[in-house]
Write a structure and sequence with these properties.
single chain, 320 residues, mainly alpha, ABC transporter involved in vitamin B12 uptake, BtuC, two-stranded antiparallel sheet, 14 helices, 3% strand
């Protein structure tokens, strides 16, 4: 097997193992109904994580994801109150996500500030803006929300692919094409692999960096739109901590935090692993939500150790 596919293969193996363990422990767990629910419930965070994959592949980080999700929901809910159609307000927020992400990327490159600091500032700015818009949870009552929730594609068995999951899979397909079949995608990998070499090869560093964070902003905003439609509401604290969940999904998907190595498709399975852990704990019934974080933390630690081992073996092989 090609070395670049090893992290993805490991992620898929872990997902399948957890799914089979669930089927062994609990009746009716091995069903398309459970699979469809995992995809639908985690669609918004997987969408945001897909955008984050490009950021991490370039060697960067984005901590503003959760706040973007919350801000998008709050704005959409308040625009719904004054009569805006969710598609129009959602499109507006996608444009905002693009501009906000691009601004972060420009500051990171032009001012040569660490992405951690810039996006942390973005986190505080967006979260504070949520409370400036509204302090309370606001429902979205437009008929389009109910229509969107009713969209689904039947799966074999009793399961269905709901609207949020459909949007997520389309967003994933677009991201795969961008990452693996465009010059921009090649530039992202080049920057993450070695910034100095990428610059010497003629990669437009500033333009690519701005585009990377702009793309991440669009996907984070899209995650916020889907979350708002899925919950039919906007809440200023929505998305709190989701930036860490998104980053964990990317890492569990096989992307190295140092950049340059990883595949967008792996992020889907990374997010589904976290969703599967939560589903297993729900099926158990005797464990509380803290075990979701504990189990996810253990898996994340193991994946990081595995990645370090793989990187070490690759470097050793290159020097021999």
């Amino acid at each position: 097997m090609n070395e670049k596919y090893l992290p993805l293969a490991a992620t898929i193996a872990v997902f399948l193992a957890l799914f089979l363990i669930g089927g062994f422990l609990y009746k009716n767990f091995l069903s398309t109904l459970v699979l469809g629910d995992i995809l639908a419930d985690n669609a918004f965070i997987i969408i945001a994580a897909i955008g984050t994959t490009f950021v991490i592949l370039s060697g960067g980080i984005d901590l503003s994801i959760g706040s973007m999700i919350g801000f998008v929901g709050v704005v959409m809910a308040n625009l719904d109150v004054v009569g805006w159609h969710p598609l129009i307000s959602g499109g507006l927020m996608l444009g905002f996500g693009l501009l906000f992400g691009a601004l972060q990327g420009l500051i990171i490159d032009f001012c040569e500030i660490q992405p951690f600091i810039v996006t942390l500032a973005g986190l505080f700015l967006l979260r504070g803006s949520c409370f400036m818009v509204n302090l309370d949870s606001v429902p979205i009552r437009h008929p389009f929300v109910a229509w969107f929730a009713g969209l689904s594609i039947p799966l074999p068995g009793e399961g269905e692919l709901r609207s949020s999951a459909i949007v997520m899979l389309v967003a994933l397909a677009v991201a795969i094409v961008i990452a693996h079949f465009t010059r921009f995608g090649a530039n992202v990998y080049a920057i993450g692999g070695d910034r100095v070499s990428a610059a010497l090869m003629g990669v437009p560093m500033r333009r690519t960096t701005v585009a990377i964070y702009a793309l991440g902003g669009v996907y984070s905003a899209l995650g916020g739109v889907i979350y708002a439609l899925y919950t039919s509401s906007g809440y200023p604290l929505a998305g709190t901590g989701n930036e860490l969940t998104a980053i964990a999904s990317v890492v569990l998907g096989g992307t190295l935090l140092t950049g340059g190595v990883g595949m967008v498709a792996g992020t889907l399975f990374g997010g589904m692993i976290l969703g599967l852990i939560a589903t297993l704990i729900d099926f158990n019934g005797s464990l509380n939500g803290a075990w979701i974080m504990i189990s996810g933390g253990i898996l994340l630690f193991l994946f990081i150790v595995m990645q370090r081992s793989l990187v070490g073996s690759f470097k050793l092989r290159d020097t021999t």
